[in-house]
Amino acid sequence: LGFTTPTAIQKSVLPVLLAGRDALVRAQTGSGKTISLPYPPPSAQAQQPRISRGEGTFALILAPTRELSLQVFDVAAALLKRYHWLVSGLVIGGENRQHEKARLRKGVAVLVASPGRLLDHLEKTASFRTSELRWLVLDEADRLLDLGFEAKLRQITELLNQRSAAGAAGSPTGRPPAHHTPPPKHTTLSPPDLLPYTTVQQTGAGLQLLASGGSGGAATAAAVGGGDDPLSHYSLPASLRQCWMEVPAKERLMALAALLRNRAARRRVGGSKAVVFVASCDEVEFLHYLLGDMWEAAAGAALLPRSVRLFKLHGDMQQAQRTETFAGFSQDGDGVLLCTDVAARGLDFPNVTTIIQYDVPGAPAE
């Protein structure tokens, strides 16, 4: 994975997670949060009795988008290479449900999922075993709630609790096995409902480790994450340079084309990519056609060099197309990705040097 030493956020959050504490982790993009998510389960297996595939899923990671789920799954699979008895799996919308069901029947120790497809399997796949679940991770938790998944998350946690209780009732003694750690009775989704947990927050001055316990858990969380304007606490990575252009509406398209062409002419050795965010799926399709096939047909020459491929990504595409785009843009040395906010959070594309917000964001937080 390219790590020789843990990042600052990893040094702070991993001891908390390995100690069995609940944690809320907030840090800048690129700080190494994602690799912290699937690390505790295999690490715990080095000290605890091995689990078997027949015991089902004992670590569950939820992500808001299919692309982020794919990325987290790749990280989990890399971390589990040394633990051959721990099988990782992925269930997301758009994939073959029967194939997913067959994998769940055999047993998946660490499962990465999108909320909708996971809820579907919890409701309809009887062979999906979760009574031994010990880890529940919400990656990009705020994004999960922004996209309207709160109701599904509550359904998921209720079903997990029901399955845990049913598993305990089905044991010979009427109690869960000694190594069994049932999921919590409630799930943290908003400040009023918070259970005791530890907040690990990265700020401009460094890391803050805010321990909370007992009845103070909700109060501490509200002080950190609520009440004040979240934008006033937001700090940008030091290596990020921001600029803006004031362009008349009728010249926006030409300005974008000129910017992409100029950037392609000055691309660096080793690869250089650009991501262009727009407001809608239709706009992605329009710009992809206009800057690609239509431009070449009208001008007699391509807008970008042949070595710089033009990609598109949005929520209305078939899953096979989305997966192909995600893999292609990740692996290519040069490229331009036209996308909606489906790619706005958590995705790690190598060699991205330029990000363009083509349309005005709909909210200050964006």
TrEMBL record:
GO terms for molecular function: ATP binding; hydrolase activity; RNA binding; RNA helicase activity. InterPro entries: DEAD/DEAH_box_helicase_dom, Helicase_ATP-bd, Helicase_C-like, P-loop_NTPase, RNA-helicase_DEAD-box_CS. SUPFAM superfamilies: P-loop containing nucleoside triphosphate hydrolases. CDD domains: SF2_C_DEAD (cd18787). It is an enzyme of class 3 (hydrolase). Residues 252-366 form the Helicase C-terminal domain. Residues 164-197 are annotated as: Disordered. Keywords: ATP-binding, Helicase, Hydrolase, Nucleotide-binding, RNA-binding. Gene3D superfamilies: P-loop containing nucleotide triphosphate hydrolases (3.40.50.300). It comes from the Eukaryota. Residues 14-173 form the Helicase ATP-binding domain. It catalyses: ATP + H2O = ADP + phosphate + H(+). It holds the Pfam family Helicase_C. Its EC number is 3.6.4.13. The keyword Protein biosynthesis does not apply. The keyword ATP-binding applies. RNA helicase. Belongs to the DEAD box helicase family. The Q motif is unique to and characteristic of the DEAD box family of RNA helicases and controls ATP binding and hydrolysis. This is ATP-dependent RNA helicase. It comes from Volvox carteri f. nagariensis. The lineage of its organism: Eukaryota, Viridiplantae, Chlorophyta, core chlorophytes, Chlorophyceae.
